[in-house]
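Quick check before the chapter quiz. The format below is the same one you will see on the exam, so make sure you can read both the input and the output lines.
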Amino acid sequence: MLTALLLMKYCSNEAVFLKRLPAGIAFSFLFTLLVNSSRILTALWIKKIGFQISLMNADTQHELLGAFIYLAYLTAAYLWGDSYLNKKNHENIS
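Here is the expected output.
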């Protein structure tokens, strides 16, 4: 969805949008794999070092970690995608 929103923001017409959509879908799939892998590896690392927040049970801590990682990656993806497409858009105009 984030990819589609960025594409709609920077595509001048429907033909350009449809031309770039397959690359956006491929990027989204690869990005999802990266985020999920990061979440799993971080959860395993936290379990290995024995980190535990005393006021939370393991399930709540796991959900909090997942929410934090997803939010951080989505924010980073939006900022990177927006700056990349904005720069590319200015290059096309020049």
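If your answer matched, good. DSSP finds three helices and no strands in the chain.
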